[in-house]
Amino acid sequence: MTKSEDLTESTGSATNRSALMILFLTVFIDLLGFGIVIPFLPLFAEQLHVRAAGIGLLVAIYSLTQLIFAPILGSFSDRMGRRPIILLGLFGSAVGYTIYGFSISFAWLLLSRTVHGAFAGTVSTAQAYVADTTPPGRRTHAMGMIGAAFGLGFVLGPAIGGLLGHWGLRVPVFFAAALSLANLLFAAWRLPEPHLVQQRGLGDLARAITEPWRRLPAILANPALGSLFGDAFLLTSAFAILETTFALLAAQHFGYSATGIGGLLAFAGLIQALVQGYLVGKLAKRAGEFYLVIAGAVLTMVGMAPMGLTRSRDLLLVLLGVVAIGYGLASPAIASLITKRTPAPEQGQVLGVNQSALSLARIFGPLVGGALYQLAGGTGAYIGAALLGASVLLLSSATASPAVAGANAEG
Fold first, then answer.
1. pLDDT, tens digit, for every residue of 24-75?
2. Are residues 179 and 248 in the same domain?
3. Which residues of the chain have pLDDT under 50?
């Protein structure tokens, strides 16, 4: 390699790191706003005389609309570029929060959650941005950074929302709207478009909208991709069971107050963020992404299975950390593998399908976890979550050959 080529590569690497840091901040601030608002949604809804079933619908409609629109936004990002779709998602967040803040009825709240879910393509488009701007050997680390931004937003958001909530439940919502608007302006100013994206324009708008759904059977029929979507769905379903039932388990079996439960969840979020932001990239270079997915499934099983059985607070903390490490390892590894098995012009669309799988999991997991908890308590719910982790092992072993695993390790 000549000196000029080496300088060009170094400059490009520095540019990519700068873009990744800006992207990290964009995703972090977006998820910070989400974390500020969502924990207080049930309380805000109750003030508007919305009953429990309505609150459940408000939670579910976000994931449902995200499931529908994430592949479409991903397809748009393949055609128009990543930057416009990330900006559109931030604009949608600001609009959704604003409608939320001015809501005076269930219908307005439902509209706000629908709008927010429809434009929540930031994470999958950010992952496609990472795939465009990082070499395969560093991609899992970069995906982990996006996951860390996601996790840190959820850790810090509820704490900030709790402080702002002293002045009324609308104050955190308007703060989140202002934060999203500021994030939109920051990203418009600082976030560049990846050079690898060949902007083709939307062309026939109807075709651009329906293309992801017309191609969905072919995408799912691809064994290399279909198994990864299955892994993402199963692991996220297991984690969603914990998110849905952990407050009940911690209060009923261990006597934790709301403050203590928040502290435990913040601990789990911080562990996950550290794993994704630092550890996962180093392990991917040594072992490969395939084995990180396997390790994540095993840790999910080990952490979930005893959680509903133990009555030891110390063991509960250890098990919660084990589950956080497992999900923190597997999630960015799956996203990285998807990008490596997808042609560059289709990565936004395919990662949008993966985001839909995660959204479906966040509908399926809470429904199954809640039913199991009602029927068989914490034991049933967390054994069920452990079985979902075991299903990942079965799916992965059935669809991946040693040659594929070896190739992953080399990447």
1. 888 888 878 877 877 677 778 878 888 766 776 787 788 888 888 888 888 8
2. no
3. 1-12, 401-411
Domain-located, residue 41: yes
179: in domain:
yes
Look-up of token digits 């998110």: 243
- Taking Cα atoms as reference points, which of 108, 200, 172, 148 lies closest to residue 20? 148
pLDDT tens across 212-222, in order?
A: 666 677 777 77
Q: Which two tokens stand for residue 262?
A: 């928040």
List all residues 6 or more positions away from 338 whose beta carbon is below 8 Å from its beta carbon: 225, 228, 347, 350, 351, 354
DSSP secondary structure letters along 109-167: HHHHHHHHHHT--HHHHHHHHHHHHS-HHHHHHHHHHHHHHHHHHHHHHHHHHHHHGGG
Q: Go through the chain and tell me how many residues it has.
A: 411
Report the pLDDT value the prediction gives residue 243, as an integer from 0 to 100. Answer: 80
Q: Dihedral of the CA atoms 257, 261, 262, 268 (nearest 10)?
A: 160
Q: Please, which residues have CB within 8 angstroms of residue 23's CB and are 6 or more apart in sequence?
A: 126, 129, 130, 146, 191
Total domains present in the chain: 2
- Are residue 71 and residue 155 in the same domain, yes or no? yes
Q: Check residue 105 and report its DSSP letter.
A: S
Residue 111 lies in a domain: yes
- At 135, which CATH number? 1.20.1250.20
Give the tens place of pLDDT for each residue, 145-161: 887 887 788 778 877 88
Cα gap 373→359, rounded to integer Å: 21
Q: Which of 281, 279, 347 is nearest to 137 (CA)?
A: 281
**177: domain range?**
9-190
**Is residue 197 in some structural domain?**
no
* Same domain flag for 56 and 170: yes
